[in-house]
Known about the structure:
Elements: E1 2-24, E2 35-45, E3 50-55, E4 61-84, H1 100-105, H2 129-138, H3 145-159, E5 161-162, H4 173-179, E6 181-182, H5 184-197, E7 202-209, E8 225-233, E9 240-244, E10 249-250, E11 255-261, E12 270-275, E13 280-290
Parallel strand pairs: 5-6
Antiparallel strand pairs: 1-4, 1-12, 1-13, 2-4, 3-4, 7-8, 7-11, 8-9, 9-10
Amino acid sequence: MLYDVNLHIGYLYDTPVSGGRHIVRVLPLSLGRRQRLVAGTIGVAPVPGERVDHSDFFENPMSAILFRSNHERLDIRMQARVHVDVPQAAADFSPRLDALPSEIAGHWSLDANSPHHYTGSSPRLKDCPEITDYARGIVNPDMTVREIAATICARIHKDFTYDAEATSVDTTPREAFKLKRGVCQDFSHVMIVALRSLGIPAGYVSGFLRTIPPPGKERLEGADAMHAWVRYWCGRVNGWMELDPTNDIPAGNDHIVVAYGRDYSDVVPVIGVLKGYGEHQTTQAVDVVPVRQPG
């Protein structure tokens, strides 16, 4: 699939703010045959005093921007053309849970994709006994890692209700688990904690999800959204795979990857500091539009 992706994130401040430093991660990744960034740009208004484009530890594109002058608003716009061709899932050669530790120990690399970075706690994901008990009650010792991940994904989708008003960006997995409600960030965080509690390396994926309007309805501009799902390590043969617990599906050609990390803190689309007071209004609009190809 070939897509044109447009994103606008806007901040309107009650009073002019002075200065500001921000890190922006909104440009889709190039991931070999799975996903290719054909072209992409990030525009910022007002024009920052300094801007450096580079990659973070997890090899996600990022732009570091610095403002020295006062400004009343900040607009970030991303345009990209992306080719997505997620390969068909291979046969399940993932190990059973009791064999996974030796495969992790046998993985010597500590590069960005090393499973060693995705076990244990991370900045936003701490041990949660309630989620651990939940995960252990779902699986059995005869399951492979892929079977365990798929089972937990389906169970979270069944037990949780999507509710955009129930949680905030700072809601912890423990709080979301107690509510059994939340958004894609909450679904993904709970699933990651559940998998890690069993010893399965798991991480957070930030990206875009193409949405299809109901039959007979026109697609609304800006109606798509940034999305989150889960990647988990299936051992040395199957490697990394991805599941979307919000929709209980494997990540496929409608999922466009922007960033990989241990949890949301590693992939925040826009984060930074500024000098000011008062409130601000935030707007976000996303368009993911399939591109017609010849033939």
